[in-house]
Amino acid sequence: MIGQRESVSGAHFAFTDRWGGVSAAPYAELNLGGAVGDDAEAVRANRELAAKTLGLDPGLVVWMNQVHGSEVAEVDGPWNVRNVPQVDGLVTVGRGVALAVLTADCVPVLLADPVAEVVGAAHAGRPGMVAGIVPETVRAMVRLGADPARIVARTGPAVCGRCYEVPEAMRAEVAAVEPAAHAETSWGTPAVDVAAGVHAQLDRLAVHDRERSPVCTRESEDHFSYRRDRTTGRLAGYVWLD
Question: What is the model's pTM?
Answer without folding.
Answer: 0.97
